[in-house]
Structures are given as C-alpha cells and as structure tokens.
Amino acid sequence: MAATATHPDATSKPTPLRLTDKHGRAITDLRVSVTDRCNYKCVYCRTGTEGAQYAELPIADYLRMVRVFVSLGIEKVRLTGGEPLLRKGLVEMVAALAGMRTSFAADGAPLAAGAGQPLDIALTTNGHLLEDLAQPLKEAGLGRITVSMDAVNREKFARITRVPDSFDKVLAGVRAAKRVGLDPVKVNCVLLRGFNEDQIVEFAKFSRDEGIIVRFIEFMPLEEDRVWTPEVVVRLKEILAALNKFQPVMPLAPNAASETALRYTFADGLGEMGIIAPVSHPFCGHCSRVRLTSDGKIRTCLFSQFDHDLYGVLRRGGDDAALAAFIQRTVNQKEARHHIGEPDFLKPSRSMVHIGG
Ligand code: SAM
Questions:
Q1: Could you identify which of 192, 205, 272, 350 might form a hypothetical disulfide with 354, taking C-beta atoms 3.0 to 4.6 angstroms apart as the criterion?
Q2: Domain tally for the chain?
Q3: Which atom of ligand 1 has the smallest separation from the CA of 218?
Q4: How far apart are CA 309 and CA 312, in angstroms?
Q5: Which pLDDT belongs to residue 11?
Q6: What is the pLDDT at residue 108?
Q7: Per-residue DSSP letters for 243-300?
Q8: Mutation probe of ligand 1 site: the residue of 37, 188, 193, 227 with most atoms within 8 A of C-beta
Q9: pLDDT tops 70 at residue 3
Q10: Is 130 a residue whose pLDDT tops 50?
Q11: What is the chain's mean pLDDT, rounded?
C-alpha cells in the first residue's frame, strides 16, 4: 500500500504565483495517470500475475484537479497510466483539456482567464488500442503521442510484453497516429540487457524508414518485481557506441531546457534518436514535472517515498483555493534529485504502473 503524507487541508487563498519548488525549478509539466490498469505485463514493469486492486477516479474529478494545476502555471499535460487507452471517457477528457488555457505569460505575469495559450496535450500509450483511437483523439485536441515499443521484432516484443499477437496492432497504431497528424509521434524503447539490446540499430533503421522519433530509455528501478540491477541497464555510452557502429551519429540541439532526451541524427539527417539516461546522466536539476496518480495523489518525483493526497482535499469538500494551496505546498517540497545507484537509494513507495510514467 502506498504511503500517504498527512497534510492539513489549507483553506487560505493561494498567491497567484507560478508553481516553483524550493530548489528554484519552475514546474510546468503535469503527468496524469487515468488508470493503473494495463493490458500488458512488461517484464521490466509488472509482476505478470493478476489480482491487483485498480484505482480510477471520475474523469470530472481529474479535470477539476488539472484545472487548478493549470491555474498555477502548468502548461503541458501528459495523460498516462497504466494504459490510458483502456480508460472510458478518455477522448472526452482530451476534449475538455483542449478547452483549457494557460494562466501565465512567458515572463511569469498572470493572464486574464481565457487569455493564455492552449495546453500542450500529450499521451503515452502502449499502442495496442491506438489504431482505432488515433483519429478521435486527434479530433478531440490531442497534440502529441508517445508509443512504448520495446522491440521491432515480433518474438522479442511478445517476450517483453508477455502478450502474444500485439506487435502488429502496435505498428498499425503508430502508423495511424502519424497518418492522422499527431505530431510528433515518438516511440519509446526501454532497453534491458538480455532482452533487447540488439534492437538499438533495428530501431534506428525503423526511425529512418518510418519517419518517427525513437527514444531509448535506461531502465530504472521502478518495477513491481525486483529485477533491476546496475548490470541490466544499457547505458547511454553503450547505446551511442551501437549507433555509431551502424553509422556515425551527430548530436542535435535540445528543443527545450527541460528536455529529458539527448537527441541525435545521422550524417544524412535521416532518423532521429533520443536517449533518456536517468541512470547514467540524471537530469533532475532541470526537472519541470509533477505527477498525479490515478487515485489522485501528487508525486513530486518518480522516486518519492510519499504520496500527497490531493484527492482527499477534494473529497472532503475543499474548494479550488484549498486545492491550490495544497498543490503549492506539496510541489514546493519536491525532491532535489533521485539517488539511483547510490548507497542511500530506497526503492520508491510505488511501482511505475501505479505512478504513471
Ligand atoms: N501503458 C503506457 C505505455 O506503455 O506507454 C503508459 C504507462 S508506462 C508505465 C509509461 C512508460 O514507462 C513506458 O514507456 C514504459 O516503457 C516506461 N517504463 C515502465 N517501467 C519502466 C522502468 N522501470 N524504467 C524505465 N521506463 C519504464
């Protein structure tokens, strides 16, 4: 069971300041898990056994909490899970998010209601149900999509996801996302020694052939089973070496200061590969993220030891000012960094599937 920090509900009016933490980082990105159910049992994430209790809130309650986050300066909302495409009401939720506007100008000045930019709305999915949902999601206002795909080889894909016959569905989903104009479409691949390190070059070819950005992710200790060891992690240096052996890679400039991926292409400009290296090259210093779990708890870091029960404030009748004050106080306490690989590292209080990646 996840630990919950006890905070007294605040009722005071929040100051109209953008969310920042005590380390001076502006918090502009919110990840919202809309379910912790998943139709995959990826070896690096789930136990492979059934029987867990699932946590989902009414879509209207997620939207109310998101609206308060947006009033405090959130500009990007990424929907995730669990598997978000399993969630009934997802398309309607995207449409409601598309109607929201940011609350601050680039210089930090508060804006009048409705005067801000549309939110940047993104979604992370395993793609199994994407082929049919790409068009409705796009029409509802979804901007960008990331599909998790850990092999471009059918057998390897099935071995990692522990789901037979899904590979072709995911491929069709990725192509449908591109066809309907979701932009960009990214594919995320978690590398795990002994499973898919031989897929690095295959994914580079996939990126070149399909015109899709592929990102390799270092495996983090966030799994339900205890399979993480430093040796299992395929690190940035090794990924770059494999790519360079195929063809020399060239670095690309970051799109934003808080970007998590280091970007690369090949000399002919074909293909884009990102490497997200939280283990070997942590990027906590410019982290701009905070998470809302599917049961309405704020997590200030993937590796937090505590959740902060925002939904509890709502359920007890807290008004928007109370929610805002709770969010501000909680986000202010965001951890400076994770401690992966250090002697004092403690496994987080929740696994990835129950946090929302
Ligand atoms: N079901 C959706 C999906 O598959 O994309 C969204 C949730 S999933 C938890 C989000 C992302 O987290 C996926 O790209 C997944 O590969 C990644 N992930 C899960 N466990 C991880 C771990 N231990 N280390 C690194 N990435 C992980």
A1: 350
A2: 1
A3: 25
A4: 5
A5: 47
A6: 86
A7: HHHHS-EEEE--SSTT--EEEEEETT---EEEEE-TTTS--GGG--EEEE-TTSEEES
A8: 188
A9: no
A10: yes
A11: 92
Q: Which pair of structure tokens corresponds to residue 138?
A: 């796009």
Give the residue-averaged pLDDT of 75-101: 97
pLDDT at 2: 36
Distance CA 278, CA 209 (A): 28
Ligand 1 pocket, 86 CB below 6 A?
no
Which residue range forms the structural domain that includes residue 123? 4-355
123 Cβ below 6 A of ligand 1: no
Instruction: Judge whether 133 and 125 are in contact, CB under 8 Å.
Output: no
Q: Which CATH number is 251's domain given? A: 3.20.20.70
Alpha carbon separation from 279 to 62, 103, 235, 283, 336 (Å, rounded): 31, 34, 8, 9, 15
C-alpha 238 – ligand 1 centre gap (Å): 21
Categorize the per-residue pLDDT at 191 as very low, low, confident or very high, splitting at 50, 70 and 90. Answer: very high
